[in-house]
Amino acid sequence: MFRSWKNIVAGIALVTALAVPAAVVAQGLPTLTLNAKDGAFSGTWIYRSFSISGKPNETLAKLALGLNELTLTEQDGKVAGKRTGQGVNYDLTGNTFYAAKQGATMRLHGTAAIGGKTYNYDYFGYLIPSWSVGANEPDTIMGTVLRSDPANPSASPLIASFAATREAVAAPKAAPAPKTPAN
Fold first, then answer.
1. 79-116 burial, b if ≥16 CB within 10 A, otherwise e?
2. What are the pLDDT digits (tens) for 65-122?
3. Whole-angstrom Cα distance, residue 9 to residue 26?
4. Which of 62, 100, 65, 94 is CA-nearest to residue 79?
5. Can you tell me the distance from the alpha carbon of 140 to that of 168, in angstroms, rounded to the nearest whole number?
6. Checking phi first, is residue 136 left (phi over 0); if not, alpha (psi -120 to 50) or beta?
7. Model confidence pTM above 0.85
8. Which residues contact residue 111 at a Cβ distance below 8 angstroms, ignoring those fewer than 6 apart?
9. Average pLDDT, stretch 117-134?
10. Run of H or E including 142
11. Domain spans of the chain?
């Protein structure tokens, strides 16, 4: 009798052990949503670029290259805009690509004069999916940028990583209260 009682308890323990993970999964794990709709890149973005380094001791401050603003307008797979800030101001043009179950990417090109020297800038960026649990999570583009010298094409280009986060839109200001006549 003691042996059958042990078997019953062991069976209950086994069923419980198998049911608990199923209950956790049933609660729903966070999911990712691809924002792959025409116009997804339109807007104002806070742009940050970083040196690429495999050295674990380098600080983020040492890797930081630029903090600028991207203003992009996209329509029918074409994108145009500007990169401005920190003495940089140049036009960008390019294309966007949307693929179901893969997301959105963009490719941009611009030419800028920095310190009296002209450089070409080529960008490739991927619109990062958003988490289902991220309330008010701003869109983010992650990518790579290549700066080359058109006057010296054999020179090694500068290659960096970048992150651009959609700038928060300010809430509209409330209309002033109407003035009431003095009694």
1. bebbbeeeebeeebebebebeeeebbbbebebebeeee
2. 989 999 999 999 999 999 998 888 999 999 999 988 788 999 999 999 988 899 999 9
3. 25
4. 94
5. 12
6. left
7. no
8. 90, 118, 119, 120, 121, 150
9. 91
10. strand 140-148
11. 2-29, 33-166
Architecture in CATH of 33-166: Beta Barrel (2.40)
Question: DSSP string spanning 31-46?
Answer: -EE----TTTT-EEEE
Take residue 147 and report the two structure tokens written for it.
């700066």
Q: How far apart are CA 125 and CA 68, in angstroms?
A: 16
Residues 6+ apart with CB under 8 A from 119: 111, 112, 113, 147, 148, 149, 150
Least confident of 21-25, 55-59, 90-94: 21-25
DSSP 124: E
